[in-house]
Amino acid sequence: MNILAALPRRTDLPLPIVGLAVLAAACSPASHPADVLILGGSVLDGTGAEAVMADVALVGDRISFVADAAATDVEALDTVDATGLVVTPGFIDVHSHAELGADHGRDARAFLFQGITSVAVGVDGGGANPARQLGAWARDGIGTNAFMFVGHNWVRRQVMGMADRAPTDDELDQMRELVRQGMEEGAYGLSSGLFYLPGNYAETDEVVALNRIAAEYPGAIYDTHDRDLGAAYPPFGYLKSIAEGIRIGEEAGTKVVFSHFNAQGAHNYGRAREGAALIEEARARGVEVAGAHHSYTATQSNLRSYTVPGWAVDGGDTAMVRRFDDPDSLALIDAQTREMLAIRGGAERLLLADPRPSLNGKTLQQVADEWGIDAPAAARRILREGNASVMNLGLYDVENIRYLARLEWMMTCTDGRDPGPTRPVTHPRAFGSFTKKIRDLVLDEELIALPHAVRSMTGLAADFLGWTDRGYLREGYVADVAVLDLTELRDMATYENPHQYSQGTAHVLVNGRFAIRNGEATTALAGRALVRGGGVFDGPH
Ligand SMILES: [Zn+2]
Fold first, then answer.
1. Which residue ranges form the domains of the chain, and what is each CATH number?
2. Residue 193 CA, ligand 1 centroid: distance in Å
3. Which of the ends of the chain has fewer CB neighbours closer than 10 A, N or C?
4. How far apart are alpha carbons 94 and 292 in whole angstroms?
5. Mapping DSSP to helix (H, G, I), strand (E, B) and coil, where does residue 233 land?
6. Are 302 and 389 in contact (CB under 8 A)?
7. What's the CA-to-centroid distance between 260 and ligand 1, angstroms?
8. Is the pTM of this model over 0.85?
9. Tell me: the pLDDT tens digits for 467-480?
């Protein structure tokens, strides 16, 4: 019998539920070659344990072996020398805006070069039509694994448009139905962006009611971009906002993840520990709450949210522009825009990352100066043509970041939107969040240990997501693997020149296939569309 022909090959593995006992028997190390053998690396398994020297063998899309290959006669069709390198589980980005559906973003290279092999999308309340999204990824191919949330902002807009009011009973029922549909289609839970519109128009109870639908599905997660990270207008309150997010999860009965968790604004420098204390109190009483962060001090969002009060957008953008043209409304909007800009450190702190060439790379103040008008007027002139992507420089504080990085429940995220060629200036976080965290906080500052940082990027996230076969380097687990050269590892993207892949990522395997090999991207689109629980999307249910 030809033993190789009997092996599970990557092309015919019945996924996602491979009988592990069968697989383990088929992969008994001495009996046949593995597909890939990663030799002599320093292995961090994702648990937070210290590294051990070990070889990692892969068969098809699974890890078949983590131990000493020489002692057990493991051979392989393909061998990678990892001497002097660190081998980790592929990193999990629990909050991204990866543009996997666009030609420029499908291969997800900005993420892969950070060692990321799985990304969450549909966050901040934006997740729409899970089955369509998952189906498109499955059909067209994607560079990383990806999974999604169904978004409260999307659901509310579908049913109520941009109305600044509470839903009727009938409208709430329609929203519930959309959440249910999203969960049926494989969403990981409900995401909300109560800072954004129309989410901001919702009272807490509305979100609890919708999250209760998500809670009917085991393991559901409530992903919150909370109402007031510290720089909201009108102010809701930084701590009140965190308490609201916890309450929405606790009352509905879901887990909660605070995305890009931090305290915004100069007046909140040093205050992240107060918000973290609320989360720790909730964890102590049994609520499964976690956070995710990155280590950049700039945010990226949209100009309307940063400069126009919510009431002025009631009814949508056309209604907003009508208010710009009404002298009484305009006077109030203008005064409030000035207050909003002050909270954000001024118009010179708002750096436009918009595709429009006349805006990209300029601060709002520069644009205003060019046009010979003041900043609030410049913001309105831009918004008349459509909302614009913008960064807010210096909104986060490095001391807060350092504090958060030490917490044992803090995962890592990029919050990144990988830009197309029309955005020469954009937030570098899409290219460097994970590598920057390791470079700055582990290697340069020695603030946190490497196993702790790697755990925040792997096993911690996998456990939170309810995955049972990804996120760790263990026999039988899916072969999402990163091999890093710590002497070279660094983020290269800057605010001025963001289109720079991270360096030091020697190899990345996604579902057992090389996505990066010897520091070069392959053409593999090896990612899979994942449904809640970690299974692979196999069509609408
Ligand atoms: Zn967000």
1. 20-84 (2.30.40.10), 96-298+395-422+449-465 (3.20.20.140), 316-392 (no CATH)
2. 7
3. N
4. 7
5. coil
6. yes
7. 7
8. yes
9. 999 999 999 999 99
